[in-house]
Amino acid sequence: MFRRFSIIMMVSFCIIVVGLTGCTPNSTPVATGKEEAIKRVTVAITQDLKGDKIDATTYNGARAVQTAIYDALVEFGEGGKIEPSLAESWEVAKDGKTYTFHLRKGVLFSDGTAFNSAAVKFSLERTAVNEEMASLEIVRKLEKIETPDEYTVVLTFKEMASQTLLELSQARPFRIMSPNAVVPNGAIGGEFTEPIGTGPWKLDSYKEGSDTVLVANEHYWKESVANYSLVFKVITDPQARVLALQNGEIDMAGGEVGNVPYENIALFENNDKYIIETNASTMSYFIVINQRNEFLADKNIRQAINYGTDTSKMMSGKGAEVLGLFQSTVAFVTPDNQPFYDYNVDKAKQLIEASGYQLNASSKLYEKDGQVIKFRLVIQTEEYPEWKEMAEIFQDQMKDIGVKVDILNQERAAYYDALWTNKQYDLLLYRTYTDAQLPYRFLSSLFYNTVDTPAVAYQDDMLTAELDQIANTISQSEQQAIFDRVFDRIHEEAMTVPIFYTKQTFIHNSKISDFTFGNIEDNPVKWHQLHIEDK
Amino acid sequence: MLRYISSRLGMLILTLFVLTVFVFILMHLAPGDPAALLLQGLGAVPDANQIAIMQHKWGLDRSLVVQYMSWILELVQGNLGYSFISNAPVTEEIFSRLGPTLLLMISSFLVTFVLSVPLGVMSALHEKSLFDRITYTVTVLGLSIPMYWLAIIFMFCFGVFWPLFPIIGSGSVRHYVLPVATISIVESMYFIRMIRSFTLEYKQASYIEAATARGLKGWIFYPSYLFRAMLIPVITIVGTSFPSFFGAAIIIENVFSFPGIGKYMLDMIYSRDFPVIQGCGLLLAATIFILNFITDLCYYLADPRIQMEKQRWEN
């Protein structure tokens, strides 16, 4: 009996194990490379790329890969200057309702077909019918797209659309994809089959949850193409990314694509096997203030928190010197329009006392009518592990000005719920958006305040009125004047507490040279311009 | 036997029904809006209008009762619904990722079993010897090691310091070495202690004393007297170890970037992809229930006393 049972168990195990060896997922070849590339650069990425769904007109796939495969009509340049790309030039009507783009001639998609106005019309219309894009200005205001000839596209809007060029320059969803990328060919609502763009790369193979391999697009129009393949390898755990960089399983990690924790960067410093590349970023970390809290409704307290925050102590000085909410790399930011609160503990205490609070000698905290000034600071460390240290430094600094801060480290979903929905926070550590979404799109999404939809962050009608004005002017100088007032208002009312200016950091092994940062953080590196030392 | 199986099947359906309610309520009680999270994750700027569109698309703007009923209606037709994030059928999403995870779990289980049984039995048979004391100390220490920490240490030692094995992903047998070693070492700590205590318990049984008194040698009576008697507790450990190995797989898949169901499930929990979480919860519960059922059948096959009891009961 026992022997029979043992045999049955053993045989069952063998069958299961043998059967399962065939269960591992296979790589899905998408486009066959002519030959195996001799060299490859392997880059860490935090999440699965959804390589079989990199449709330029959707939010699918990683932004860094979309920008590697697809080009935009216009590029976002330094300081927010809009530069030509697939569109060589453009005119904007005075009323801001008509945009005429003159397309670059002789550009080919990666499948060898010609880029023309029909492809632009197809891509933009495909984006416009996607309900996920309903809030984008181009989609909201678009009336029609006309193609008078093969290299001219005219966008007509129902009303002034001042954000058009900025939205077109983003990583998605307005990049240009070939009509051949869908079935039936050229159908607006057609089913996406493969990514076909005009960018420097094309998809070679994709293995879900693991590797995405890109090969050079031999038809690329702008610069010389790469002589190596580019592999994005999914590594979710930040420590694992560091170890994989150390053991050579990956060649490069960093940026938003696959960040290396701040505390681990020191491992690669003063080591000739690795090169650390840093570049200015457009993102800031700051504290969102919930004015529903009775203490925070008082401007003196908000200003006191700002005076009591010593940003130079954050992250051992790894960031740039913090002034106002926005970095100098952000559009419309000038040396004169980012006023800030310097670090001044005495001034902070004076402001708190001016509001009638008294310091309790035993607890060393300010209070009024027996109520101590205390706040819940909500953070999350899944996406931003460094926030824990920042929050603790901030908590310590607030103690110096007699304010108690309790840190609440939330799971990502609960954190965003607190910010967007239930408002269960007093202070919340957050980040600005980047590049073309700054400053207008970011300010609108956080501070735009109406009766029906109260602002997500600080509610201020004057700020909302200014944002409305920006939407109704296409004059850069007028917009500049309005932004000057907006930045001043944010500072004067102490609507936020700026904490840290981030930098883009990439670490790669010394086999790679000619590293160049891309024009936007969603296109972090000019992947096709790297030089790989022969092994 | 048929009556027994059908009653167990009834219990399974009832349990799964209760579980559907439980998982559904728990999911909707948890903070986090799938629409806002998805848009945020995609790099879009979520605004109220966009969130409302997504919620309508997924039917999240209906009452909880209506949402639950429509899910159950789909369920009885064998459809687990569609993932919010990928729009693909949940069953397809789950089964396409099951292979590597099952392979990881079964390999780890076999290594754990092969490691634990001899060590557990040997330390019990040589109670209070130096070997027993060392084993005991190591297992006590081992039980308090966090799996995540051990994985990182292994990655550093055998992936970086001595680059013997790959530390990222799956694809070859070598990719399985470190993940399997991590799970097996941590799990075997518990197994060794259990097997040791069972062996000690059965070693003191009167029939073992009688066999010894009759002058039977160890190599004769251990297999037929001791080990056969220990089959029941061993089946219990094996039969109930699935949740523990699955939990380990979730942690390990995340550390080693192993593209399996554990990592996927965790990602979907963070993203609040309700249909996937509900589907995974149901399948897990059903698996545990079926494994318990198989364990009971094994008891029946392994222990003649249970068979006799059943016959008496049937007569």
From TrEMBL, chain A:
Protein origin, superkingdom: Bacteria
Protein name: Solute-binding protein family 5 domain-containing protein
SUPFAM superfamilies the record matches: Periplasmic binding protein-like II
One Gene Ontology cellular component annotation held by this UniProt entry: periplasmic space
Predominant location category: other
Domain Solute-binding protein family intervals: 81-450
PANTHER family: PERIPLASMIC BINDING COMPONENT OF ABC TRANSPORTER, PERIPLASMIC OLIGOPEPTIDE-BINDING PROTEIN-RELATED
Keywords: Signal, Transport
UniProt key word Electron transport: no
UniProtKB/TrEMBL annotation, chain B:
Locations listed in the record: Cell membrane
Chain segments annotated as transmembrane: 12-30, 102-122, 134-164, 176-195, 231-256, 276-302
Membrane topology: Multi-pass membrane protein
Gene Ontology cellular component annotations, sorted alphabetically: plasma membrane
UniProt keyword terms in alphabetical order: Cell membrane, Membrane, Transmembrane, Transmembrane helix, Transport
One GO term of the biological process aspect: transmembrane transport
Every ABC transmembrane type-1 domain range: 98-295
Family membership: Belongs to the binding-protein-dependent transport system permease family.
PANTHER family xrefs: DIPEPTIDE TRANSPORT SYSTEM PERMEASE PROTEIN DPPB-RELATED
Name listed for the protein in its UniProt record: ABC transmembrane type-1 domain-containing protein
Organism this protein belongs to: Paenibacillus crassostreae
